[in-house]
Amino acid sequence: MTYSSKDVALYHFTACPYCRKVRDSLNEQKLNIELRDVRKHTHYHQELISKGGKATVPCLRIKEADGYRWLYESNDIIKFLKQQVK
């Protein structure tokens, strides 16, 4: 399945090295996805915990037909973005 950049959002914060790795990959791929900074916006942090299940970043929220999937781990996120987001 292929997803559009509007189907995903990245939960992150600026100083996190793993988040930077994912953001660098986004830039390389020229993907324009929504970035949700959990340090600047506490409601994103709360959403990450309540819906994603943990406060770990980076986390990619993926819109599915039946809800959302939450993908953690920078390497898994980068692989997903390269293979499935256009």
TrEMBL record:
| GST N-terminal domain boundaries | 6-86
InterPro entries referenced in this protein's UniProt entry, alphabetically: GLR_AS, Glutathione_S-Trfase_N, Thioredoxin-like_sf
Protein's recorded name: Glutathione S-transferase N-terminal domain-containing protein
| Species this protein is from | Motilimonas cestriensis
